[in-house]
Amino acid sequence: RLQIEHLLSPTPSELNKLDPGGDVVQGLTQTPKTLPPRYFYDDKGSQLFEQICELPEYYLTRTETAILQQYAGEIAQMTGECELVELGSGSSTKTRILLNAYQDMGKKLRYVPIDVSAGILESSARELLVDYPSLQVHAKCSTYELALARLSPTGLSSRMICFIGSTLGNLTPEECDRFFSQITNALQSGEYLLLGIDLAKPKHLLDAAYNDSCGVTAAFNLNMLEHLNRRFDGNFDISEFEHWAFYNETQQQIEMHLRSKRSQTIQLRALDLTVEFSSGETILTEISRKFDLKTMQQYLQTQGLKPLQVWTDKQQWFGLLLCQM
Ligand code: AVI
Q1: Nearest-CA residue for atom 6 of ligand 1
Q2: What region holds the Histidine-specific methyltransferase SAM-dependent domain (predicted)?
Q3: What residues are in contact with ligand 1 under a 6 Å CB criterion?
Q4: Number of H helices, E strands in the chain
Q5: 154: which of 83, 130, 137, 264 lies 20 to 30 Å off by Cα?
Q6: Residue 12 — pLDDT band, cuts 50, 70, 90?
Q7: Is the peptide bond before 173 cis (omega within 30 degrees of 0)?
Q8: What is the signed CA dihedral for 126, 132, 137, 141, rounded to 10 degrees?
Q9: What is the DSSP letter of 239?
Q10: Closest CA to 116 of 200, 11, 227
Q11: Which of 30-34, 116-120, 241-245, 248-252 has the lowest mean pLDDT?
Q12: How remote is the CA of residue 220 from the centroid of ligand 1, in Å?
């Protein structure tokens, strides 16, 4: 019942396209410096993210979970039997709410979790097999892009791609457009996308959510440098950088940075890269966009996806949208 595919051992031509570390070189040699958020998620980063989801200030997970708990049955009714493909599945905790709803309907179900972090992907797939005795799990250790391009025919009546947790917010508008064209290429007409998005809200709530009092978000942010050290033989000293995050109201996005505490030079030997930092210079490690429900529905339509239903919480902090191709 369990298949685990490692798509991150690419073929030579895919390797060329993937250009390992090319994005790091590009990000660290431009002004202002940036790094792609996907480097947060080594095994330690994925564990830290799980801890973030439990923080009192980080309302996103709690709120989305409550929406799912209330409406999972409705979602399962609307799609019927289907293959659930989850992008960035992590611990699959929230997905269990959906799996329960489909199981209660007595429908055959296949779960295809996709994540770049092999450790958490494999351990959560094994736990699911124990808890759901009739579930098939076809896990893919992969980037979204590779996995979406290689989805095989479902053999079930339908497919639903789940992109929950507001990970969409971590994409720039250009990346968002590219992402949706990959989604609409992967889906057949009549198939579904379930999208979870964080909504715009007062600045103090957002600032607190990304500057928690326990320092877990700071550790998550700084861990990216340790990940780069290990992966590209680097010498970042994380005690020489600090976490800095704030809500940019004009852009409607959180901007998360690592700020150099002094002027310093670092090297990533595997990339043959030397980088100079001035004191106070920052690396933008993540944006987290906060959306408006109406604007998102209009945008989805321009991308070829029909919003069928929108669910939200009482405070309108988070939105869950079911769309159809
Ligand atoms: C994964 N993603 C939706 C999180 C977010 O809220 O943008 C990542 C995160 N960054 C800091 N805290 C959580």
Answers
A1: 288
A2: 23-324
A3: 52, 60, 165-167, 169-170, 210, 217, 286, 288
A4: 11, 14
A5: 130
A6: low
A7: no
A8: -40
A9: G
A10: 227
A11: 116-120
A12: 10
Phi/psi at 79 (5° precision): -90, -30
d(CA 2, CA 43): 21
Contact yes or no for 192/325 (Cβ under 8 A)? yes
SS3 237: coil
Q: What is the pLDDT of residue 154?
A: 81
Q: Which of 288, 289, 291 has the most ligand 1 atoms within 8 A of CB, as the residue to mutate?
A: 288
Q: 76 C-alpha to center of ligand 1: Å?
A: 27
Longest dimension (CA), the chain: 61
Mean pLDDT on 34-48: 92
Round to whole Å and give the CA distance between 184 and 178.
10
CA distances from 62 to 10, 214, 216, 282 (A): 36, 18, 17, 31
Residue nearest to atom 4 of ligand 1 (CA): 167
| Terminal alpha carbon distance of the chain | 29
Closest residue by Cα to residue 35 from 258, 217, 234: 258
The 10 Å Cβ neighbour count of residue 182 is: 17
Q: How far is CA 66 from the centre of its chain?
A: 19
* 87 CA from centroid of ligand 1 (Å): 14
Q: How far does residue 105's CA lie from ligand 1's centre (Å)?
A: 32
Token pair belonging to 274: 């030397």
ipTM of the complex: 0.99
Cβ atoms of residues 219 and 241 within 8 Å: no
| 311 CA from centroid of ligand 1 (Å) | 21
The amino acid present at 167, given as its one-letter code, is T
Q: Which residues pair with 247 in a beta bridge?
A: 254
Among the atoms of ligand 1, which is closest to the Cα of residue 170?
A: 7
Q: Are 62 and 314 in contact (CB under 8 A)?
A: no
Q: For atom 2 of ligand 1, which residue has the closest CA?
A: 167
Contact (Cβ atoms closer than 8 angstroms) between residue 181 and residue 174: no
